[in-house]
Amino acid sequence: MKHKILYISSEAYPLIKTGGLADVSGSLPVALQNNEQEVCLLIPAYQSVLEKIGEKIIVAETFHYGQPIRILQTTLPGTDVTTWLVDSTQAFDRPGNPYLNSDGNDWPDNALRFALFAQTAVDIALNRCGLSWQPDVVHCNDWQSALVPALLKTFPTGPATVFSIHNLAYQGVFSSQTFFDLGLPAGLWGMYGLEFHNFLSFIKGGLVYADRINTVSPTYAEEIQQPALGYGLEKLLSHRKQRLSGILNGIDSDVWNPATDQYLTKNYDQQNLALKVDNKSDLQQQFNLPVDNNIPLFGMISRLVEQKGLQSILDAMPELMQKPLQIIILGSGEKHYEEALLQWASQYPDKLAINIGYNEVLAHQIEAASDLYLMPSNFEPCGLNQLYSLRYGTLPLARNVGGLADTVIDTSENTLNDHTANGFIVKQDTATALISTIDHALETYRHQEIWKQLQLNAMSPDRSWQASALQYIELYEKAIEDNRERL
Ligand code: ADP
Ligand code: GLC
């Protein structure tokens, strides 16, 4: 059945991206439209977004927190998905990262910025700002849009709500005073509402009030119901487990396709896998590493934060630098990780190359050039890079957590025999466990026939959004049903 869906996110590729949420918000709406759904995307009009869209077309106006707000209309580049931008000069028209100032700290007015975003979303969801469009379902993502389900439930009627958790580690927690400063309805305060140990928690707006909650892999949906990864929200999540599910992310198979990727030295596919090596030689040259196909090359493209397993990589460095391998890391994040990696690279320029920064072209080139993709995350709600790697015949070496556990299948005698093996699993977040898995991978690399089979296993499955889009449509139907029962 056809539904009208308002898809709300704080980032969407290619308009604005800091991480995987942008990839999802830029491709799931398209997949939903390909399956007969009518989707409108809503994101903030950050300065860099305004620069990308050119002419400003104002389709509606509203007013919150003393600020005039314009709703601009455009389409998501390269698609026909209607995209509305919440244009508030004070909240969003500033340079830099959507969430952080130039010192790497949160913008001090983040609560106000994303409350204003949510209030505007509510105007659209209730069709009260003149857009003449009434969604059946409002789909919110992460804490930045999590107040929307809470606010909507303060009205006697309204659309159904779905809340997706992309990363429970980021919750939007502010002082209790902020709740009152934002003028949020008093009925939303309390431990069964937005309060979290006397603080205001934006993410609870989604977790408590949405008709349906989901996260981006089945394993992470289980993990967040346990104390280790529940961050104190595990009891709430397990209380709502009948409404909580896991749907694996897909990939944009046009953007991430080794056969057509415009950034590669040589395109390749399963039939022409031998061409992949040209990408490796080029990248080795670009990073001043010895150009040698016999040395296994590990790639990593990542936010440099604790989540991504940086500590075990650094702890393993003394041993890794003695092994026959090369590593290229592209990323930015916490300064101490950046500095420690640069330090190791200056000591071992023949083995380790670090590029600090954000670079989309290079991200594609690393995916294509590497033999292995390093992803020893401590936790990983889904992870997209291991999915890109699989498509590019680059075998992930990953922890058995979250979406990594659901997509990377360790190489063993059994999995080689049944042709499911597609990577290497690290069983603990220690340097010892990482090194032992790397040794297994290096040993396997010596057997080129086996390696090729692993690459083909990795590349074969369809990792597009199609299957997951159908699961989202089912979820929307359940949310509509739940919302109907409430009314
Ligand atoms: P997360 O969202 O936790 O950062 P994901 O694996 O879901 O992790 O998605 C990360 C996305 O961001 C991928 O598309 C990845 O290629 C991209 N990315 C991360 N860091 C960089 C970087 N330094 N340069 C280019 N792309 C990056
Ligand atoms: C988050 C998670 C990542 C996931 C992405 C998109 O940033 O850290 O695992 O792939 O969201 O859902």
Number of domains: 2
Sum up the overall morphology in one term. Answer: globular
For the terminal residues, how far apart are their CA atoms?
21 Å
Uncertain stretches:
none
Q: Structural class of the helix and strand makeup?
A: alpha/beta
The overall pLDDT average reads 97
Bound molecules: adenosine-5'-diphosphate, alpha-D-glucopyranose
- Helical content class: 25-40%
CATH fold node name of the largest domain: Rossmann fold
Question: What is the CATH class of the largest domain?
Answer: Alpha Beta
Report the major sheet. 9 strands, mixed
Number of helical stretches of at least 4 residues: 20
What is the alpha-carbon Rg in Å? 23 Å
List keywords for this structure.
six-stranded parallel β-sheet; binds alpha-D-glucopyranose; alpha/beta; Rossmann fold; single chain; binds adenosine-5'-diphosphate; 20 helices
Can you offer a commentary on this structure?
The protein contains 20 helices and 18 strands. The relative contact order is 0.11. The protein has two domains: 4-250 and 466-486, Glycogen Phosphorylase B (Rossmann fold, 3-Layer(aba) Sandwich), CATH 3.40.50.2000; 270-459, Rossmann fold (3-Layer(aba) Sandwich), CATH 3.40.50.2000. 39% of the residues lie in helices and 19% in strands. It is globular, with a radius of gyration of 23 Å. The chain has helices spanning 20-34, 47-53, 89-92, 110-125, 147-152, 176-181, 202-209, 218-223, 227-230, 234-239, 276-286, 310-320, 335-347, 360-369, 385-391, 402-407, 413-417, 431-445, 448-459, 466-486; strands at residues 4-8, 38-44, 58-64, 67-75, 82-87, 137-141, 160-165, 173-175, 195-196, 199-201, 212-215, 244-246, 297-304, 326-333, 352-356, 372-375, 395-399, 424-426. The strands form three sheets. It has a nine-stranded mixed sheet, with helices on both faces. Strands 15-14-13-16-17-18 form a six-stranded parallel sheet, with helices on both faces. A three-stranded antiparallel sheet has the order 8-10-9. It is of the alpha/beta class and 487 residues long. A hairpin with a 2-residue loop joins strand 9 (195-196) and strand 10 (199-201). Bound molecules: adenosine-5'-diphosphate and alpha-D-glucopyranose (GLC). Alpha-D-glucopyranose binds at residues 19-21, 24, 166-167, 216, 249, 380-384, 403. Adenosine-5'-diphosphate binds at residues 19-20, 23, 301-303, 330-332, 358-360, 363, 383-385.
